[in-house]
Write a structure and sequence with these properties.
By secondary structure, this protein is of the alpha/beta class. It folds into two domains: 167 residues, Phosphoglycerate kinase, N-terminal domain (Rossmann fold); 199 residues, Rossmann fold. Helix content is 33%, strand content 18%. The protein is built from 14 helices and 17 strands. Strands 5-6-4-1-7-8 form a six-stranded parallel β-sheet, with helices on both faces. It has a six-stranded parallel β-sheet with strand order 11-10-9-15-16-17, sandwiched between helices. It has a three-stranded antiparallel β-sheet with strand order 13-12-14. Helix 11 links the parallel strand 15 and strand 16. Helix 10 runs parallel beside helix 11 and helix 11 crosses helix 12. It is elongated.
Length: 399
């Protein structure tokens, strides 16, 4: 990949505009999960250590192009200050113009400046060149450390990168290296695990992957649609019956590409969708007419474990069942534990991403054992679909 990192640019004495994603959950005026804030710390500290002055650009919520008091980034200032202990963190109530410029001018080495929500300006989500020019006037260099926002062509993620010498921050660079290792130039065999509720939301993903991977594991509600496509009845299970033809097309494309598709061979069925509901394990083609499939069964998990053991690289997006509700988290947990074991043993490179996936792996207690966990949602999915991400493509421009 032809993009620079912090190691390729001179930072000393420079005002460094750093695009970060600190769109974190907040309740009652306090940050409840500072994970995204913690992940940008290495980039900020490295800029300061090299003699640069980091100026942070970020969005928060969806204010629709105008200032909204309860979507001010000022709410994250305490959590950011805690994460950057030892550095002085300052807030400016705008991200462009005289107010922002005055805050930049007042900085000394060791300061970190957080600018107000970029989405308070209508030009941000329109990728407006004029707004990007105003941002560019504040700094000497541009660093994108927000892979999770890289699928959006916004002023602070795309247009700005063309106006200043640009590079990837530590988090962005780590993400891109991990993704390149997983799907760009993977060690084979390569297996992809794709779960979730609906085939319709992951059509592009499935269509792209069957031409790229050696094994495709389909789980969650979308597996039911593929079972229906093969003439198997699934009772009251979630299934997009109108997508059966599309599912058959994907299976045919997979066969032509030499990709083996793995569907559940046994399933866990229940008559109620609630925690602790009475459940049974049945063959995938024996779902009772009045029951619903809520998880993959133990034989399926055992077979997947053998597939994982035979592979060298794994990418994972989406749970294998209704993982939020026990006991229907069993297949996802067991499969995740197996991947973690193989990764720890050095036989498997494992990369996972997407909100539900990260939650499921955290719930299984194995997230730290995967080779890489992407906290990006839409950007990770679009990368798996083979789409160009504007925020990444912009970094590959000369300058």
């Amino acid at each position: 990949m032809a993009w620079k990192t912090l190691d390729d640019v001179a930072l000393a004495g420079k005002i460094v505009l750093v695009r970060v994603d600190i769109n974190v959950p907040v309740e009652n005026g306090s940050v409840t999960d500072a994970t995204r804030i913690e992940k940008i710390v290495p980039t900020i500290r490295d800029v300061v250590a090299a003699g640069g002055k980091p100026v942070l650009l970020a969005h928060f919520g969806r204010p629709a192009g105008k200032p909204v008091a309860d979507m001010s980034l000022q709410v994250v200032l305490p959590a950011l200050t805690t994460a950057l202990a030892g550095l002085r963190v300052v807030f400016a109530p705008d991200c462009v113009g005289a107010v922002a410029q005055a805050a930049v001018d007042a900085m000394v080495v060791g300061d970190v400046l957080l600018l107000e929500n970029t989405r308070f300006h209508a030009g941000e989500e329109k990728n407006d060149a004029g707004l990007a020019r105003q941002m560019a006037e504040l700094g000497d260099l541009y660093v994108n450390d927000a892979f999770s926002a890289a699928h959006r062509a916004h002023a602070s993620t795309e247009a700005l990168a063309h106006l200043l010498p640009s590079c990837a921050g530590r988090l962005m660079a780590a993400e891109l290296r991990a993704l390149e290792r997983a799907l760009g130039h993977p060690d084979r065999p390569l297996v992809a695990v794709v779960g979730g509720a609906k085939v319709s939301t992951k059509l592009d993903l499935l269509g792209h992957l069957v031409a790229k991977v050696d094994h495709l594991v389909i789980g969650g509600g979308m597996a039911n649609t593929f079972l229906v496509a093969q003439g198997i009845e699934v009772g009251k299970s979630l299934a997009e019956r109108d997508m059966a033809g599309t599912a058959r097309e994907i299976l045919a494309k997979a066969e032509a590409a030499g990709c083996k598709v793995h569907l559940p061979v046994d399933v866990v069925v229940a008559w109620e969708f609630k925690a602790g509901a009475r459940s049974e394990v049945v063959a995938a083609d024996r779902c009772p007419a009045d029951a619903m499939i809520l998880d993959a069964g133990p034989q399926t998990v055992a077979e997947l474990g053998s597939v994982f053991a035979a592979c060298r690289t794994l990418i994972w997006n989406g749970p294998l069942g209704a993982f939020e509700i026990p006991p229907f988290d069993s297949a996802t947990n067991a499969a995740a534990v197996r991947v973690a074991e193989l990764t720890r043993a050095g036989g498997l490179v494992s990369v996972a991403g997407g909100g539900d996936t990260v939650a499921a792996l955290n719930k299984a207690g194995v997230a730290d054992d995967f080779s890489y966990i992407s906290t990006a949602g839409g950007a990770f999915l679009e990368w798996m679909e083979g789409k160009d991400l504007p925020g990444v493509a912009a970094l590959q421009q000369p300058g």
